Amino acid sequence: MGADGSRPYRNRLSAMSNLDRQAAPSVCGGRGFVVAEPVRELLSPRRVLLGESTEVRRLLPNLGRRMVGAWAFVDHYGPDDIADEPGMQVPPHPHMGLQTVSWLHQGEVLHRDSTGGLATIRPRELGLMTSGRAISHSEESPRPHARFLHGAQLWVALPDSHRNVEPHFQHHPVLPTVTAPGLSATVILGTLDGATSPGTTYTPIVGADLTLTRGADLRLPLDPDFEYAVLSMSGETHVDGVPVLPGSMLYLGCGRTGLPLRAESDAALMLLGGEPFEEELIMWWNFIARSNDEITQARSDWMTTTRFGEVHGYDGGPLAAPELPPGALKKRGRVR
User: Binding site annotation covers 95?
Assistant: First the structure.
């Protein structure tokens, strides 16, 4: 380990919420549709308005790919110039059956939740909220705030054995890193090359922020039992020979022991991976469940009961849930 707390690579060497008012159900999970071999499947984003003023690029769930390991939701936003704007303004809203991961490259996000969690999340700090059976939270740019806002919001699906855990929030300002010539990798969740994040996980999973300098040419060690994807945050990078532009994601499948990376400029990526998620799920709005009845009950509880608790301190009321689609929501697997 280096004097700065970083962990060098061994010889194996050769990172928010769904506020869409037209929320559509998404069915995901199940091993039957996992790509069991290495692939190069480029996923294009769908643009969605988050809150009052922030547009995001939604990579998961995607038209052709709904999960990567337990990663079930990925939004990439910015960099946005918010010097004269309110920035992120996400009113109190509910979650169940998942963890949220807030990850920033620029700016700050003030988190409040119904367990009393309160933290200002800054670049390369982990904000990890475990909803368990029920939680609510808000997210906003502080006042005053930095000029630019750039980051990603991600969800991790909880397995059935842990989806009713006590809700809680973790803020980890310092995370472990691994380094190699031209690369510094911050471990967000799980383990990468022997370095393990302090964030609580409930399935075999990894998330890492990769910062590459121009000209970097390396091979990142991977676990062949995991499926992986790479999200480009900034710069020009070739991932296994495929150019991946900022705001796009390359799905990589399973069976890889390493991943070739080459940076054409200073660049940043997010590596997401994990064991394929065995259970089939239903995801609607901000809920992950196993049946239509659970989703229906959760929506009703958010609108009429105190199940999800109360967020104190946000300047504004809670978000109303969208209407449920007609017909029962059904589980159908990982890909459309």
Answer: yes
